[in-house]
Amino acid sequence: MKSARLNRLFNSKSKRCFDVAVDHGFFNEHDFLAGIENMRKAIDVLIAAAPDAIQLTVGLAPLLQEIPGRNKPSLVLRTDVANVYGKDLSRTLFSRMIQSPVEQALRLDATCVVVNLFQIPNQPEVADQCVQNILAIKPECERYGMPLMIEPLVFQPAFQQLPSPASRRARQRFCKKRANTDQKRKNFLKGKSKVVGNSHALAIASNRLVTSATRLDAPSMRGRFSGRAS
After folding, report:
1. What is the rounded distance in angstroms from the CA atom of residue 122 to the CA atom of residue 127?
2. Alpha-carbon span 31 to 49, nearest angstrom
3. In the predicted model, is pLDDT for residue 207 greater than 80?
4. Which of 25, 84, 103 is nearest to 57 (CA)?
5. Any idea what the Cα angle at residue 94 is, between residues 89 and 98, rounded to 5°?
6. Sheet containing 19-21: which strands, arranged edge to edge?
7. Which residues, listed in sequence order, are joined to residue 149 by a DSSP beta bridge?
8. Least confident residue range of 84-88, 123-127, 141-145, 194-198
9. What is the DSSP string of the chain?
10. 96-117 pLDDT, tens per residue?
11. pTM of the model
C-alpha cells in the first residue's frame, strides 16, 4: 500500500518530511563529495540527527538498511544518474534511469523513489530524457504502491569559459553592475531618485532602468552551465 509507505516517510506530528540527500557520488562530480567521503560515518551522523528520510543510491542504501532497530530514517532511493554537473561538461549530456528501479527499491525496503526533472539552457534532449524516465517509472510505482518523488532542477546560464582570473573579474564586474542597478531601482521606487518632476521625466528614468536591467540578462550571460541549480 502506498499509504503505508507514506506514513513511514512523513513525520506523524508535523505531517512533513525532512529528506536529507546524500546521493551525490552517483553524479561523478568530485566537488560534491566534501564531507561525505566516508559514507558509513556520514550516515551514522545523519541517523543521530533524526531526519525523516535519507536519500541514497542503490549501492549505498544497504549502509542505512543494515542498521538494526526501528528508530532510523526512512530510505528514499535515487533511481537516475546524470552527467550535467561540473565545470567541464561532456559533449553529450544525459539523464539515465537504473534498471528495474521500483523492484530494487522494494528489495531495499525503500519508502519512496526519486527521479530528476532537469531544465537546462539549450539542452532540450536532457529534459526529454527526464520526462521519458518519469513516464516509465510512474506505472511501476502505481503497480507496486511505491511513492514517487520528482526532483525539479532548473539550471541558469553561466559565463563563457574564460581563463582564470579573467572569469573572476568578469563575474565581479557583472555582480557590481547588477548591484548598482538594483540600488537605482530601489531608490526610484522609494522616491529618492535624482529624477524628479513631471511624469514624462519619471517615465524616462523608469525606461532607463528597464533598459539597463535588460542588458544585464543579455548575451553576456550565455555559455556553459554553472553546475548549480537555481
Report:
1. 10
2. 24
3. no
4. 25
5. 130
6. 19-21, 53-56, 74-78, 112-119, 148-157, 225-229
7. 114
8. 194-198
9. -HHHHHHHHS-TTT----EEE--GGGG--GGGGTT-SSHHHHHHHHHHH--SEEEE-TTTHHHHHTS-SS-SPEEEEE-EEE---SSS--SS--EEEPSSHHHHHHHTT-SEEEEEEEE-TT-HHHHHHHHHHHHHHHHHHHHHT--EEEEEEEEEE------TTHHHHHHHHHHHHHHHHHHHHHHHHTT--S--SSHHHHHHHHHHHHHHHHHHTSGGG-SSEEEEE-
10. 999 999 999 999 999 999 999 9
11. 0.66
15 phi and psi, to 5 degrees?
65, 20
Q: Which amino acid is at 85?
A: Y
Cell of 199: 511624469
Query: What does the pLDDT read at residue 165?
Result: 58
Cell of 21: 540527500
CA distance 11 to 111: 13
In angstroms, the CA 166 to CA 79 distance is 39
* CB 78 within 8 Å of CB 104: no
**Span 134-150, pLDDT tens digits:** 999 999 999 999 999 99
Place of cell 526533472: 117
Region 141-163: what's the mean pLDDT?
81
Residues with Cβ within 8 Å of 82's Cβ and at least 6 positions away in sequence, in order, are 27, 93, 94, 95, 96, 116, 118, 126
Length of the chain: 230
